[in-house]
Design brief:
The structure is a single chain. By secondary structure, the protein is mainly beta. A hairpin with a 3-residue loop joins β2 and β3. It is 0% helix and 52% strand.
């Protein structure tokens, strides 16, 4: 069994969300499957409108339909149609 390396506990979550380039152009839709204070696990749409390999290293995750709730993210890992992201600020 692998050792848990996360600093904060992930909680199960099921919330539609959207991925956007930093300039606001949409990338694709997703569902947030788990969330913590510092990051999330995302599942791309079914069928995915973008492959995990097409997702850039930094993007904006819109959590609300209105776009008022969002997080700037850095991609940490990708596997098939899932992504692991760290909430951060762009530099």
């Amino acid at each position: 069994m692998s050792e848990e390396r996360r600093k904060t506990l992930r909680k199960p979550f099921s919330q539609p969300a959207g991925l956007f380039y930093p300039n606001g152009k949409p990338i694709c839709g997703c569902v947030m499957r788990e969330i913590s204070d510092t990051g999330a696990r995302l599942k791309l749409g079914d069928p995915p409108s973008a492959a995990a390999s097409e997702i850039p290293g930094e993007f904006i995750l819109a959590i609300s339909k209105s776009g008022n709730v969002f997080r700037r993210c850095k991609l940490v890992w990708r596997c098939n149609d899932e992504l692991g992201v760290h909430f951060s600020e762009f530099r």
